[in-house]
Write a structure and sequence with these properties.
single chain; alpha/beta; TIM Barrel; seven-stranded parallel beta sheet; two-stranded antiparallel sheet; 9 strands; 52% helix
């Protein structure tokens, strides 16, 4: 059975033993391939090569194409910093007030952006080489709430939730149009499934009532729109999701990537036969700081919560650089 088949059966809640594996590994894929982050993000051939070689070396069932968290923001005009050996990051506090940010949100800017085009070309290259063998997951960058926040800067955006809620919802709605277009572009480029991060709307930053007012309606709309278009997606929100997990499950996303801070046993019960869990191992505490014994123990602990149904196991967020190859091998061996 191919990796693609194993993961797609998991989406159908069929038993797959051992569970499929996929890692959020763009930083260590580049590192293992000998590329700086600058070299990686600027060359679609290097991106594709790094991910394919990693997947083959460690027998991954799927590849997650990710570059950084600033692609959409860059496309709409937010200033971005590009360190040599770190992922890109936003460096401006704001690109303007609400009116300026609303005006900047234009989905047509995606195909005019060099970095978006690099991501899409990398997906095409991977599709040409491993399509139908290894599942290809195209990350569509930041969800509507988080993209809206990046356009303004965290402090003015958070203040706007209180001061101008109706206009802030207008901004998030415009960000939605940009964001969902990226899912379509990834699918057209060859992704089997997509994913996105919307961590700014999680309980680590806003209250559950604010999530329900400013993020939930757009998540619900996205789940319905993507389902209508035949695009399976995975929602990722960093941090402890305990306070909003029931809401998030009710949205209807086919899968949710769960951070280790969440109560995993409870999450497994809430998501059972409703949404596939991706993750939820600690990327730093287990993969980076852990030894082979700890990695094996924590991996098997997660496996014990599932009966080979509804789980694609990996890290709950991006793996940092500096992880020894033996630690990745220990993770794989624990699944044998």
């Amino acid at each position: 059975m191919t990796g693609l088949e194993r993961i797609m059966r998991t989406f159908n809640f069929e038993k797959v033993s051992p569970p499929p594996r996929m890692l959020h590994n763009f930083m260590i894929a580049a590192e293992y391939a000998g590329y700086s982050m600058k070299e990686y993000r600027e060359d679609p051939k290097k991106i594709a090569r790094a991910h394919i070689d990693f997947a083959r070396e460690f027998h991954m069932d799927g590849i997650l194409l990710d570059i950084d968290t600033c692609l959409e923001a860059d496309a709409i005009g937010v200033e971005v910093d590009y360190p040599e050996n770190e992922p890109a990051r936003i460096i401006t506090s704001t690109m303007g007030g609400l009116d300026d940010c609303i005006e900047a949100m234009d989905k047509n800017k995606l195909l005019q952006n060099k970095r978006i085009m690099i991501a899409l070309e990398a997906m095409r290259l991977m599709r040409a080489e491993v399509g139908g063998e290894i599942l290809l997951r195209g990350n569509a960058d930041q969800g509507p709430f988080s993209l809206a926040m990046l356009s303004m800067g965290i402090t003015p955006f958070m203040m706007s939730l209180y001061d101008e809620p109706e206009k802030t919802l207008e901004l998030i709605n415009k960000a939605y149009d940009v964001h969902i277009e990226f899912h379509r572009l990834m699918k057209e480029a060859g992704a089997d499934i997509t994913s996105f991060g919307d961590s700014s709307c999680g309980p680590d930053l806003i209250s559950p009532p604010m999530y329900r007012e400013f993020a939930y309606p757009f998540h619900k709309r996205m789940a319905n729109d993507l389902k209508t278009e035949g695009i399976k997606t995975i929602c990722h929100i960093c941090g402890n999701l305990d306070l909003i997990l029931e809401d998030l499950v009710s949205v209807g996303f086919p899968a949710i990537e769960i951070d280790y801070k969440t109560n995993i046993a409870r999450a497994a019960e809430l998501m059972k036969n409703k949404a596939v869990m991706f993750g939820p191992l600690n990327p730093s505490g287990v993969f980076y700081f852990g030894d082979e014994e700890l990695i094996s123990k924590e991996t098997k602990k997660i496996l014990s919560l599932f009966d080979g149904v509804g789980l694609v196991i990996g890290a709950g967020c991006a793996l940092p650089t500096g992880i020894p190859r033996n630690n990745i091998k220990a993770f794989i061996n624990a699944l044998a």
